[in-house]
Design a protein that fits this description.
By secondary structure, this protein is an alpha+beta fold. The chain is built from 4 helices and 9 strands.
């Protein structure tokens, strides 16, 4: 029933009444289009490591640093893996391949002001460190009151009158 309700939601009135939320609405539209055939390889975890710090950990067994490509562009983090066959494997016959080494591309939508700080590969796990840094101009600031004389509207004349201190 919830699925039916979500499909009946029409965001068009919101498009007409808001400015600058296009990306949010596109994300909401894509949430309804998620299907069971979405890629599940490689598996990953997303962790909060601090108040404004996050880590994505991906299981990339069999991949080396040269096989992985990480790119951050326009609030999208893309991780690509392409295993190049080594000269050692050319001479061997693999009887069973249980360690997947197929090419992959995984995308993560990043919130505004989230930056990639670094990546490391250890024991078959790729760790990507992320930090949200809100610019100083966007942080809340205290606005002081004062400096001008308070003004009061005179009900009979409808014009501003200087307020008198009591």
């Amino acid at each position: 029933m919830e699925d039916r309700i979500m499909r009946q939601f029409d965001p068009n009135p919101l498009y007409r009444q808001t400015v600058g939320f296009d990306r949010l609405f596109r994300m909401l539209d894509t949430l309804g289009n998620v299907d069971a055939t979405a890629p599940t390889y490689p598996p990953y975890n997303i962790e909060r490591t601090g108040e404004n710090a996050y880590r994505i950990t991906m299981a990339v067994a069999g991949f080396g640093e040269g096989d992985l490509d990480i790119e951050s562009k326009e609030n999208v983090l893309t991780v690509k893996g392409d295993k190049k066959e080594s000269a050692e494997e050319n001479g061997r016959e693999v009887l069973y391949r249980g360690i997947a080494a197929r090419a992959f591309e995984r995308r993560f939508q990043l919130a505004d002001h989230v930056e990639v700080r670094g990546a490391s590969l250890e024991n078959g796990l790729l760790h990507i460190e992320l930090v949200r840094e809100i610019p100083e101009t966007m942080k809340p600031r205290k606005i002081s009151i004062g400096g001008q004389t308070a003004r009061q509207i005179d009900a009979t004349a409808n014009k501003p009158v200087e307020a008198k201190a009591a």
